[in-house]
Amino acid sequence: MKNPLVSVIMATFNEPVNYINDAIESILNQSFKDFELIIIDDSTNKDTIGAIDFYTKDQRVIIIRDKTRMGFVPALNRGLLAAKGQYIARMDGDDISFEDRLEKQVNHLDSNNEVDVIGGNMQIINETGDVISHRNYYSGKFLLQIGGIFRSPVAHPTVMFRRTIIDKKLFYDESFLKSEDIDFWFRLRNNGFKLANLSDNFLFFRISGDLAKKRSREHFSYNYKARCKNFSWRYFYVDIPSIIITKLYVLIPNKFISLYYSIENKKTH
């Protein structure tokens, strides 16, 4: 059998059954059909494991498990190593992709050879699936660089990138327990790969509980480490302010971070 054009990489760990069902089905029901879905499952919850195993009846679904806990970042790399597609798409086990997501991303990469990584915007949903906010990412080259000063230049759960990246042995750095995506994007940039965003919404991004707890001081410390590690004099005009601002994030009390995210995630217009 010929290899699929797209490999979708989904790392999972004990997501609620309704979340994992919605996530998997949002990929299986894509308007674009030439893909494989690789689920690297770290779950210990029997209900989650059973929900994932239900989809083995679909030949496009491949499940990878290990006897011991892999961890999120090593699981992503396991998925990349197993991927057969020319394009690699990311997906999380609690998000929901729009039906035309893969189709739009494939069309863009097919038509724009200079673009290596394509991301997009997200609608933010709560635990019950209600849209509570949105998150837009800059699409112009210069604005994307400016946006990368303050946050990730592309939304990790929305991206699709070319296989040439992993063919050149560029994987996620497993020393990063958090902000592995920030490190990855800036390493790709420094290796000459071009990142871009479309103005389309590609998925519903689920927020469960207080996001500030996930964006802890440890998270921002890894973010700071990633930016320092990948500093480039070629991009000093964005790298220097990004390092300074991220260092300030590390020093800001969590209560102010909680306030910021509570405001951001209630923006519905």
Characterise the protein shown here.
- With 269 residues, the protein is an alpha/beta fold.
- It has a single domain, classed as Alpha-Beta Complex (Spore Coat Polysaccharide Biosynthesis Protein SpsA, Chain A), CATH 3.90.550.
- It has helices at 17-28, 46-53, 72-82, 101-111, 141-150, 164-167, 180-190, 211-214, 217-229, 236-251, 254-264, and strands at residues 6-12, 35-41, 61-64, 87-92, 96-97, 117-125, 131-135, 160-162, 195-206.
- Strands 1, 2, 3, 4, 5, 6, 7, 8 and 9 form a 9-stranded mixed beta sheet that branches.
- Helix 5 (141-150) runs parallel beside helix 10 (236-251) and helix 7 runs parallel beside helix 9 (217-229).
- The longest helix has 16 residues, at 236-251.
Task: Describe this protein with a few key phrases.
nine-stranded mixed beta sheet, alpha/beta, Spore Coat Polysaccharide Biosynthesis Protein SpsA, Chain A, 9 strands, 11 helices, 20% strand, 269 residues, 41% helix
Q: Could you outline the blueprint of secondary structure elements for this entry?
A:
Blueprint: E1 6-12, H1 17-28, E2 35-41, H2 46-53, E3 61-64, H3 72-82, E4 87-92, E5 96-97, H4 101-111, E6 117-125, E7 131-135, H5 141-150, E8 160-162, H6 164-167, H7 180-190, E9 195-206, H8 211-214, H9 217-229, H10 236-251, H11 254-264
Parallel strand pairs: 1-2, 1-4, 2-3, 6-9
Antiparallel strand pairs: 4-8, 5-9, 6-7, 6-8
Helix pairs in contact: 1-2, 5-10, 7-9, 9-10
